[in-house]
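Narrative of activities, Objective 1.

The group set out to show that a structural description can be obtained from nothing but a protein's sequence at a throughput compatible with the screening campaign. Below is one input-output pair from the validation batch, recorded exactly as produced.
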Amino acid sequence: MRLADAAATAAMGRALAALVRPGDAVTLSGPLGAGKTSLARGVLAALGLAGEAPSPTFAIVQPYDPPDVRLPVLHVDLYRLDAPGDVAELGLDEFRADGVLLVEWPERADPQLWHDALRLTLAVAEDGARALTAEVPAAWKDRWPPT
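Output recorded for this entry:
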């Protein structure tokens, strides 16, 4: 899927927000500056967050709860973690039963950790657009791609 600019990336996030439900994990991969946080911000905005969501790069985990959003979301950035085992200390699986995980830099965790996640990868094209690819697990087959 081609996302022409930052506005298109945010729009894809808004479309994704219409599809997520409690228990979902969505992973966002790609190089620095590819648009992972922009896509997550689109999701959060469409779920009702007023104002721009901060990047969770330094906090690592940024929680959002109703009434600020229509369902609980943890926006997670694993970029600064030193080892895959560090993810267990974050308590993400306990949260997931009632909320949605948006995970940037999932490759810094055990690859089997979110085996049922919708895995989105963003790449920067030569013209500055973004190429979005998806690995779609069974739980998402009837929901992806957004229409």
